[in-house]
Structures are given as C-alpha cells and as structure tokens.
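>> Question from a student workshop board

For tomorrow's exercise we were told to take the sequence and the ligand below, predict the bound structure, and bring the output to class. My setup keeps failing. Could a helper post the expected result so I can at least see what it should look like? The ligand is flavin-adenine dinucleotide.
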Amino acid sequence: MIVIGGDAAGMSAASQARRRLGPGELEILAFERGDFTSYSACGIPYWVGGLVGGPDELIARDPATFRKDHIDVRTGHEVTGINLDARTVTVRDIAAGKDITEGYDVLMYAAGAVPVRPAWADNPASGIFGVQTLGDGAAIEAWLSSFDARDAVVIGGGYIGVEMAEALIRRGLRVTLVERSGQPMSTVDPDMGALVADAVRGLGIELRTGVAVRALETSDDRVRAVVTDDGTIPADVVVLGLGVRPNTALADAAGIPLGDTGGLATDLRQRVTGPDGVVDGVWAAGDCVQVTHLVSGKSLHVPLGTHANKQGRVAGINIGGGYATFPGVIGTAVTKICDLEVARTGLSSKEAEAAGFRFVTATIESTNRAGYFPGAVPMTVKVIAEKDTGLLLGAQIVGRAEAAKRIDAFAIAVWNRMTVVEMTALDLGYAPPFAPVWDPVLIAARKAADKI
Ligand SMILES: Cc1cc2nc3c(=O)[nH]c(=O)nc-3n(C[C@H](O)[C@H](O)[C@H](O)COP(=O)(O)OP(=O)(O)OC[C@H]3O[C@@H](n4cnc5c(N)ncnc54)[C@H](O)[C@@H]3O)c2cc1C
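>> Workshop helper replied:
Here is what the output should look like for this input. Compare the format with yours to find the bug.
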C-alpha cells in the first residue's frame, strides 16, 4: 500500500489497514512532502492566538510512532508521478534531490487541497502568509515575533479568515478583515451573517465587506499595504484565507478521472471512480475528493477534517478487507470568533433555493441556560424546513456559550430526515444550568412547525 499525503486522510487509512492486516500481509509506505504527519491544521489559528502551543502539541502521531506500527512514513518525500499501468509512483527525496520508484498494489491518494491564489497574491515579499500547514503557522509566528507588527489585514471572511482575525486581535494587532461578498461567513444566511458582522466589529476588528483586493503593496521585500477597490489599507502582515481547491493535479496527469467539482469522485467505499467504473487499485479520501450532499443530492467539494478522518478510516477498513462506507455530508460546520459561536447544518436558504426546494424559515431568540440562571446569554436559531412536508432542510445558530454544538441535534435530525413537527417532541435534556425548559432547538422547531 502506498499512501500519498501523510495527514488526516492518508494516515487514517494507513492505520486502519494496519489494524486489519499485519506487516506480513500488507507493507505500508506513506510519502509526505512536508515535515510533519497527522497534524492538526485546525489548531493553527489557536496556536497563533496563543491559546494552544505548537507545533508539537498539534501533532497527533509522528513518523516514529507510525514506524512502531510498521507503517513506513517518509517525510520530505514528494510523489511526482503515478503510472497506473505499471502500478508505480515516482517519488522525489527532497533533501537528497534524488528520485525513486516504488510499486504498489493499492494506492491511497490523500494529497489534500491547494490554496486558491489569485494573481495579485503571487508575491514573494515577506509578511504574506497562507494558513494551511504547520510550516505556515511557524512562519506567521516567526514574523510576528521578529518585530513590533501593528497592522494586520486578513483577506477572506470564511471560517479560517475569521479565526485568524481573532488570533491577531488576541496578539494585540490592529486587524482589518476584507471580504469580497456582503458578509463574513457567507455559508450562513445573510440575517445570521449580519449577527456575525456586528460581533466581529464589536471586537474592534475593522470589517470591510463588499470590498475586492486588487494588489499587495510591497517595498524593501516587505508587505506594506493591501490595495482594494475601496482604498488602501496599511499592513505589516497579510493573511490569506481565500479558500482551497482539491489537490488533484497529480491524479489528473496520471489519467485518473476527476469528478465534476475537480475533486476525485469515489464510490461509497472510497474507491476512485470514473465514467468506466472503479479505477482498479486506487482509493482516495479527504480534501482531494468530492462528496455528495445528502439533502440536495449535489456533488460538492467540502474540505473539512471531520470528513477527511472518516473517509480515510473507511478506505483503510476496506483496504484491510473489511467493509465500511462514507455516505456523504449534510453541510455541518462550527466555528467561533472570540466568544461568538457560529454553526450550520443542512442547506442554507440560498442552497435550498438552488436545490429547488419550496421552504419556510423560522428564527427565534432564546438563551443557552434558564433565563434566571447565572451565565445565561442570548442565542439566535434559524430553521429551514420544506414547505409542504415540514422536512428539516437546515439550521443555523449564532450565539455565545454552548450555542454552536447544539447544531448537532439538528444535524442528527437532518441526517435521519426528520420533520420539524417530529422534532418538537424530541426528548432533549433539561435542567436550568444547561437549557431553558424549552431548549432553543425545540423552540425553533416549534416555530417552523407552526408555519407548515
Ligand atoms: C487553518 C485551518 C483550520 C481548519 N479548521 C478546521 C476545523 O475546525 N474543522 C474541520 O473539520 N476542518 C478544519 N480544517 C480543514 C482540515 O484541516 C482539512 O480538511 C484536513 O486537514 C484535510 O485532511 P487531508 O488529509 O485530506 O489533507 P491535508 O491535511 O491537506 O494533508 C494532505 C497532505 O498531503 C501532502 N501532499 C500533497 N501532495 C503530496 C505529494 N505529491 N507527495 C507527498 N505528499 C503530498 C501535503 O503536504 C499534506 O500534508 C482547517 C484547515 C485549516 C488550514
């Protein structure tokens, strides 16, 4: 078994395969072009913000630990070619500058994603950072520690941009968050996004929505400012959170078919598929694959660690001779900026419309605990339900303590195709320190049910 990519998807697959097949039955060789294996990129904003240490704390399993399990991981090795007919890969040992060829029976493609970089972002000056690898986190750390940086500009108001804005505010910088669309967190409806925008501004972050970046101004090999279509913003540090696309160039060059989103298409068992069926011996998982949205039925690219780990596990179980499936996703995601928590599952209003649903929405205000209990803070919950059937299509939550993970109740309901009427009878836990007597989840479901 050869694994391309030594992080969430690739190493989950390797570990699961090894659990089922001993070293005498399956030889596992994993190539990672970077220096780390099984690391949490998700922790980088919290490392930069000083909430957690890094990079060692962000590594779940290092190559030495894998070797104990007879998984041979080679960091600093980049796979540069795949020959499907010969069943070989060509690998560059980066430090030695040497190429080697290795044969496989099973190829696990888990090369992740590549960051989106418009032409203006292609600038070699210092002070400009992506946030994808632990190396990126270390580079930001080193830059911020090397001088008294004052002005930070984060470009892109998705969850990574928002998390990085929090990190930089925590470091005492003046932070501007620039977002091309009309709201930060455009994965939630505009009315919920407006709550996020208010909270972001309340933290002292200068939020510039509807603003497009045109160029980065540099001098003496350092970034100095971000030029937008609405003026120039001074910058000692620029962080790019512009999204990612599947890293499938290597697969494409080898003639492995890509799905319609540009990610690899797989069957439920994570075998790569194309117009002619399964591609013999090739498996894929993680940010390089596309997934099916179980509510809209559409193919999507959803680069999240939660999916990468599950898909890698599924692939590894199957490679090891077991049986497991990854049915798809329902668009669940959570994030936070300082104490504001944001969550979503299912379809947003825009997505429900695009998928052709007729739907109603219901929005309620409630609190995380009984209103009289210390620490009770407000939360807004929005529910989207199919108009005629009441089928729960999606939900969104913006609030503070204990708000975001309430989305899991909605996620389970979406997953199991419950209606909002059915949801009103759910036996959710209640005691004053945890919820009002009617949990916000139930109040929102009830309000939506009233509209059906
Ligand atoms: C800042 C940040 C915060 C995030 N927060 C969250 C979160 O809160 N929740 C969540 O669910 N997800 C989050 N994610 C997303 C999550 O980190 C990814 O979805 C997950 O890491 C994907 O795992 P993967 O194994 O598919 O890809 P990756 O983690 O990208 O790993 C792919 C690996 O393949 C290597 N590679 C690529 N090409 C080659 C090659 N040719 N040869 C050898 N090696 C190669 C790369 O170096 C990389 O290490 C976050 C991501 C970032 C960047």
